Amino acid sequence: MTKKKVQIWNGNVRDAALSILLAVDKNQAYSNLLLHQTIEKYKIDPKDRALLTEITYGTLQHKFTLDYFLEPFIRGKVDLWVRWLLRLSLYQMEYLSRIPAHAAVNEAVEIAKRRGHQGIASMVNGVLRSILRKGVRSVDEIKDPIERLSIETSHPQWLVARWVEFYGFDHTSEMLRENNVPPVQTVRVNTTKTTVDEVLALLEEDGVKAEQSDIIPECIYLTNGQASRTEAFKKGFITIQDESSMLPANVLNPQPGWRVLDMCAAPGGKTTHMAEKMNNNGSILATDLHPHKLDLIDENVERLGLEIIQTAPIDGRKAASFLQEESFDAVLVDAPCSGLGVMRRKPDIKYTKREEDLESLHSIQLELLENAVKVLKPGGRLVYSTCTVDKVENEGTVNDFLTTHPEMELVPIEHLPTQLIEKQQNGMLQVFPQDFGSDGFFVAAFCKKSV
Ligand SMILES: C[S@@+](CC[C@H](N)C(=O)[O-])C[C@H]1O[C@@H](n2cnc3c(N)ncnc32)[C@H](O)[C@@H]1O
Fold first, then answer.
1. Where along this sequence does the record place binding of S-adenosyl-L-methionine (predicted)?
2. In a domain, 111, yes or no
3. Which of 102, 117, 394, 449 could form a disulfide with 442 if both were Cys (CB 3.0 to 4.6 A apart)?
């Protein structure tokens, strides 16, 4: 039976969540982008927006657990859309206490009728009502601890095993659980235009509850609302950015008048942060491999009213052949990485990333650093950062880089609050999602010895 054609939004939240989940699965669409586009395109109101986000992310986040629960109740093969419908309905029944289970079942049956036919609707009804009667099986039935953790927290087994080897079982278990908790919305204050207090007052006028972070002073936490719709955003007073992503500019600590290279810059979150730190005085060359992404930097620069940023499409692995040798006071390499620290906001990463990808990223990261050294002045500072939690891409890249570059030395991480400074090990800082509720992130700072 062929599926009836549906558009993403017909006023029904569960139907829309199903369309998004299917697109993510079939077309490798990014869940966060598709969700955002759907909300904007159909101007979905705040109440439906919140539920749509919760069901879409929640179902994706718990996919392996939901499949484990569903398995004993499904006989034979089911179409992909029916499987996703069962997953998203069971997600509501198991994880969303405010939605009555029978309402989730009724909605599922109606969707099955609309998208398929009465036979499928009966099957969906049968499966979900059996689960209601019998309950789901316990993950304690799984004997192997790695497999149990993988199913219980819905992360691939290879990753669980890798993290357990690197960071130990308990630490990994905490991280996996934190990855399933929705992130708090954070913004960075543009200190060239305004103050934290002024932004807090503006947000309040817009009905947004917010408070200043006690980790990064220019960071504000939002407990409701949508930052991009606020007056503060329109005025260029804030940038939406996770608190961990505010670390590199603080660690690099660029001074007014410096000439800085941001080698992997798009969409410009850290470029603009550095320009703010430099109080719009000096120059920043923001480069990226993909020319079309430079437009995103330009848009941000314009909105924030910054004047010292120039962009250029340059492959960082060849940067030294395009840029003058030893001409920058500082270089930021915010490298392409596996992104294992941002699964809370991009749950699809859990199911698409493969272990082999991590090795090739390690080689690219080394090539980028190789070029960064060449264009850095003696005495200049280099900061290397990633939004991942992995010892090969992080500590491994730093150690391999130092082995071939005796002219570079790690310098202690400074210009951060004590609780972060204390966490560094051998001049490298790995932030885990469970540490401060921010993304998993890594940062290391080097100095080029003067000869
Ligand atoms: C982690 S993202 C950078 C985020 C950015 N620094 C920010 O804060 O908004 C990594 C970026 O590296 C870029 N990239 C990937 N390979 C590259 C290369 N060989 N040279 C330069 N940029 C590269 C990607 O296009 C991507 O925009």
1. 264-270, 288, 315, 334
2. yes
3. 394
